[in-house]
Specification:
400 residues; 2 domains; seven-stranded parallel sheet; elongated
Length: 400
Amino acid sequence: MKKHIKKLALAYLASLLVLGSTAWARQPEVKHEDIMVAKGQTLNGDIATDKSVTVEGTLDGDAMSLGGGTVTISGELTGDLVSMGGPVAIPGRVRGDVSSIGGPVEISGQVNGNVSAVGGKVTLSGEGRVDGEISALGGGVEKGPKAVHRGTVNSFSADALKGTLSSALRTARSAARIHPGPGDPRNFRTVSTTWSTSLSNIHADDFRTLAWLVLVWFVVLLTVLAGAVLVIALIAVFFPDNVQRAQAAMNADIWRACGIGALILVGLFPGLLLMVVSILGIPLVPFALILFAAAAALGLTAFCVIVQGRFFDGIKKTGPAGLPGKAAAGAALIAALLFLGKLVPLLGGVLVLVGMMLLAFGVMTGLGAAWLTRMGTRSCVPAAQPPAAAVPAVTPPPAQ
C-alpha cells in the first residue's frame, strides 16, 4: 500500500515535469482523413489525424490518432504511438512508447518501450512482447501463455499519468496548428487560404449549429448556478441555527476564521494521505470527505448571508427578511457575477475573477467558521461579562 501511495505522489510530480518538458515540442498538423502507410512504403516524419491510422510499411516518426479512430501497426513505427478513444492493435513493431486513452490495446507483435493505458484493457496475445513497463489505470492487463513481458505491471504509476498529460498536450498544440497565424515563429507550413476564401466556406447551417451550441452552453451554466443557489437556500431552511452560529463566528473575527480555513485546506491532502498509509484509516477517508464537503457548504451558506447583508447595506435597500432568502440572495449575487462574466465582452473577465475570489474566500472562511462552531452546534462568540460591582470609596478620617 505504501508503494502505491509513493507512486501517487510521484505521479503528481511527473505531471509537472511533463508540462514543462513537452511544452515546446514540435507537433504535426492534425489531418481529417485516414492515414495509410502501405506495405513496402516508408514515410518520414510525424503524423496526426482525427481518423484511423494504419501502418503496414515503415513510419519513421511518431503517430497520433486523436478522434477515436482505429490504430493498426502491422509494419514498423520507429517513434511513439498515441491514441485517444479508439482501439489499438499492434501485430507489428513499435520502437517507442504506446499511450492509449479510453481504448483497448492488443499487442501480438513487439513494443520496445513502455505501454500506458488509461481506461482501457491491455492484452498481450500470441507471441506478443513488451520490453518496458505496462501501466494500466482503470483497466486490466491480460497476458497470454506465449507472450513475453520483461518489465513490470503497475495498476497505477507515473507513466500512466505521463502518457495522459502528454497526449492532452499534443492534442491541444496540434489543434492550435490547424490554422497557424502568419506571425507564429513555429509556422513551418505555408497557409494558402485567405480570409475571403475561409468566410465563403461558412454556411448558414454552421452559424445555426454554433448558435445552438452557445445557447446550450449558457443553459447548462445557468442551470448549474441555479442549482447551487437552491442548495444554499435549502441548507438555510433545514439548519438555520447552525448557519446563524457560523455567521456569528465570521462576524466576530472573520480573519481568524479565514486563517483556520486556510490551514484546513492545506492539511486536507496530507491528512487523507496519512489515513491511507495507516491502512486502518482507509475506511475513514469517505467520511472525512463528506465532513469536509458538509463544512464547506455550511460555511458558504453563512458567508452568503453576510454578502447579501453588505450588498443591501451598500445600496441603502432592504434585503430579504428570512434566513433562507438572505442565503439565496447572497448565493445569487455570486452566481450573477459568474454568469454575467460570460456575457459581457470586455469586463467579463473581471466579473468572473471577482466571483471566483468571493467563492474561494467564502469556502475558506466558512471552513474556519465551521471548525470554530463545531459545525454550528455551539457558539464561539464569548458571552458578555456582567458589569463589576462598584467598590465604595474609602473616606479618609478627619484630621485631628
